[in-house]
Write a structure and sequence with these properties.
heterodimer; A: alpha/beta; 6-stranded mixed sheet; 4-stranded antiparallel sheet; 36% helix; 24% strand; B: mainly alpha; globular; disordered N terminus
């Protein structure tokens, strides 16, 4: 059977003033339905470029990306993206930010149904009371909650997250990580998640598999590490498990020894 | 889910409620203090200006009227602003109204052209490449240079003045609108792409609200220049208007009237500028 989301020999070359720059060279990855997969690597290794190609915001120079057998052509709500910097529209309220997305995507719903739908997801992320505020009036963690709610609300078949919690403080980050997994396990429409991160602990906590990228230029996937930890996982509990140590050590070795940053 | 809510102290702990949420009286008092001090400093500034003026007029002698004499004339002008005794003798209010009418007409026509063309230039690289050189050539031209063209085209000094204001008001609005549209961050555009906003939704919910503060800045600058140019334009055109009034007063050797007109021009300019600033604040957004 064909994989759910398939990346085959994907290469991305950027034109620069000093000639072509091969950012990503021959990335292949099969993602199954229902998985959470992380792409981890040093900053600048091209992991965000890979995600951006999966989202359809950038085209691959060569190679193919297929979702459920169909080649990716341009962005679309079946691959809702949670951006690194939240990307809420600052002139709209929290409510409108989600509503406008729902309104564009879920064209078969009536206006009242759309409203119920938005309300449901606002309550899921605990922001109902803040629905009339603008993004400038809420905290970074709340903004990212809105972005996550907006992405889940359009029922994507894959949820793509680009270093979603990187800008948040440690406590807020943990809260949001757990909330993401909760939403993922409760939501029966969105089963597959691809996450870009440079945080080893975050990758282990969230993922079923972790694809470790080598350093750019010409970055590729060096190794895919399985995370044999049962769910639900809690940060404090899994740290004590031997499997956690093993995965952590392996990732640590890959990122600090095998594909060491050229810092 | 982890939620950190503000810790609430029970009343018995004795946290004064005024610090947590100032009562309306306290807020109003603070507001009044802010306004009061602004009025105070403005008054100090005006007094300093009047003092310099007084000294200057003592040195200049009869050639420069002093503040008191000017204020007396200023009072007379304001006492009966709308009298109309034929084409060469109208109240200051009527002159202002005719100037504002010309500025309004030229400015409105210019905005109606500049905003759509600015959108086109901002959104489309080809039209930008074609139009930008034209803008660069036209923009540095003194608007008064268009006056003869206006006269030739419209055979009327009044309409030619409106044409001058039109040519003046185009550029700041055009350039700021184009810049605003062009500077739309990729992130905002990508939101529209990922969630498949329709063309209409993209323009009304993303592009327009994002560019609105830039457009309003352009309009504010355009209005500022238009209000400066109208005085010179009406000096050339004659007939009516605050610019004509200044020139006419000079010919009648009444510097008191000229100085009064300058005060009025400044005051009206300030009001226009503040109106656009207020509008700009209404459309601004945090990030």
């Amino acid at each position: 059977m064909e994989p759910f989301f398939q990346l085959e020999d994907v290469t991305k070359t950027f034109k620069t003033d000093r000639g072509p720059y091969v950012a990503v060279d021959g990335v292949s990855l099969d993602i199954e339905r229902g998985e959470i997969v992380s792409l981890i690597g040093h900053s600048g290794c091209g992991k965000s470029t890979v995600l951006s190609m999966m989202a359809g915001l950038q085209d691959a120079t060569s190679g193919t990306l297929k979702l459920q057998g169909r080649p990716i052509k341009g962005p679309g709500p079946d691959r809702a993206l949670v951006f690194q910097n939240y990307s809420l529209l600052p002139w709209m309220t929290v409510w409108d930010n989600i509503f406008e997305a729902v309104d564009s995507v879920m064209t078969d719903l009536s206006r009242a149904e759309k409203r119920d739908h938005v309300g449901h997801f606002l309550q899921m992320v605990g922001l109902w009371e803040h629905r009339f505020k603008r993004p400038s009036q809420i905290s970074g963690g709340m903004k990212q909650r809105v972005a996550v709610a907006r992405a889940f609300a359009v029922h994507p078949s894959v949820l793509l997250l680009d270093e979603p919690f990187g800008a948040l403080d440690a406590l807020t980050r943990v809260a949001l990580q757990e909330e993401l997994v909760k939403l993922w396990s409760l939501d029966d429409k969105t089963e597959t998640v691809v996450l870009v991160t440079h945080d080893i602990e975050e990758a282990i906590l969230l993922s079923d598999r972790i694809a470790v990228m080598t350093n750019g230029p010409s970055a590729r996937i060096g190794e895919v590490v399985d995370v044999p930890l049962s769910r639900p996982r809690h940060e404090r509990e899994i740290i004590a498990e031997p499997a956690y140590r093993e995965v952590h050590d392996r990732l640590w070795y890959l990122l600090t020894e095998a594909y060491r940053a050229v810092a | 889910m982890l939620r950190i809510s503000a810790v609430r102290f029970p009343a018995s702990v004795g946290r004064p409620t005024a610090t947590a949420r100032p009562s309306i009286d306290v807020e109003m008092l603070r507001h009044a203090q802010v306004i009061g001090s602004a009025v105070f400093y403005t008054a100090v500034g005006l007094l300093v200006l009047a003092a310099i003026w007084q000294v200057a007029s003592l040195i200049a002698g009869k050639d420069l009227p002093n503040p008191i004499a000017t204020l007396a004339v200023f009072g007379q002008l304001l006492a009966n602003p709308f009298y109309d005794k034929g084409p060469n003798d109208k109240g200051i209010g009527l002159q202002l109204v005719s100037s504002l009418g010309r500025v309004g007409a030229g400015f409105a026509l210019a905005s109606a052209l500049a905003i759509p063309v600015g959108f086109l230039m901002g959104a489309n690289a080809t039209s930008r490449k074609i139009l930008y050189p034209i803008v660069q050539i036209m923009r540095p031209v003194s608007p008064l240079a268009w006056f003869p063209i206006g006269l030739a085209a419209f055979q009327s000094a009044g309409t030619a003045t409106i044409f001058v204001i039109f040519m003046t008001s185009i550029w700041p609005t055009l350039i700021n609108t184009a810049f605003g549209v062009m500077s739309l961050p990729d992130d905002h555009r990508n939101v529209a792409r990922v969630f498949r906003f329709s063309r209409l939704k993209y323009v009304t919910k993303v592009l327009l609200p994002y560019s609105m503060p830039h457009i309003l800045t352009g309009l504010r600058l355009s209005m500022g220049v238009a209000w400066m140019v109208i005085v010179a334009g009406e000096m050339l055109a004659g007939g009516t208007g605050i610019g004509f009034f200044v020139w006419d007063s000079w010919n009648a050797l009444s510097l008191e009237k000229v100085l009064s007109a300058i005060l009025i021009i400044g005051g009206v300019g300030l009001i226009l500028d503040r109106a656009f600033e207020w509008a700009g604040q209404r459309f601004s957004y945090g990030s």
